[in-house]
Amino acid sequence: MDLNIKDFSTLVRDQVTAIQARAAGMVDFSIGALTRAIVESNSSVVQWIQQLIVNLLATTRAATSSGADLDSWMADFSFYRLSAVQATGLVTFSRFTATNSALILIGSVVASSDGSQQYSVTIDTTNTLYNPSLNGYLVPSGTSSATVPVTANTAGSAGNAQVGTITVIVGSISGIDTVNNSGAFVNGVDEELDDAFRSRFVLWIASLSKSTKAAIGSAIMSLQQGVSYTLTENKDINGATVAGYFTAVIDDGSGNPSSTFLSSAANAIEAVRPFTVTYGVFGPQIVTANVSMTLTVDASVSKPTVISLVTAALQTYISGLKLGQLLPFTQIAAVAYGASPYVQNVSSVTLNSGTSDLSATSRQVIRAGTINVS
């Protein structure tokens, strides 16, 4: 409902009108008069009461609460805001001389070029170089590089990184000389915003006590921020028809979710799935997008600088595509034009050596491969 809020001048004017209308003669409301002082004091108190009422109404409804007040409102339902998510990705450790073996310990720290963000090496049991007894990745003699997963030490979007920006080894790793990231880190997300928190609450309420697609979706989306998923009924992961079975393909935003994340997703689904219905939880298949183009830029600026901006914009756009989302061929040029006002023309554009859109199935997610901008 709309509140009839009055400002200070209106409150003073209304009181003066009411008093004068009931007085037998003229009442002095000039500056310094006692009656004017009383009227203005009343108006100040009324404004304070008005603000208290507005604040009370704002904090008693989820639609108008914000920040800590919204958290408190949701906590009455044991429903909580999703925390920030740490960025994850792969970095490549290299060395100039590969005569001896080298060990990259779990927990080894690398940093961005400016030193603002640090990342720690994490365990990947599927990596052939991982050695559990040594608690790290053993790079054998004769091997000049090793690609391993890292996680940002600080949660949030600040941990996201463009290609080639993680270049510092904090401390030292014996037998390792350099580090770099060949792919962008894009799955770091800040703490859930108020609007997203409210939207997820509505979905959660709609899913209560229901073994429905919405309930399963709510359980998956409550794992963390940046999650996307597809649910395919009566089909297994290979597309074969299996009655009473559904396939859940889930991505944490990286395109390569860990086994721990997929296990957590399976546990969340298990809590809400219908009785006698079975399911499978899988990570996405990556469809590589190789982009090539030629730019014509304004002569007043450095072309390498513009190329760098366009390359970063393309990496960010492609990395933001969700499961099953199409990469339109025409959008590639649009991203390039939008990256810098100094881009005058985009020509010789190819996507995977062709000029067709790149599609993805419900199990696939498109990620950037080689971005060649000249």
Automatic annotation (TrEMBL):
Protein name, as recorded: Baseplate protein
Protein origin, superkingdom: Bacteria
Domain Baseplate protein J-like barrel, residue spans: 95-188
InterPro entries attached to this UniProt entry: Barrel_Baseplate_J-like, Baseplate_J-like_C, Phage_Baseplate_Assmbl_Protein
Domain Baseplate J-like C-terminal: 290-374
One Pfam family recorded for the sequence: Baseplate_J_C
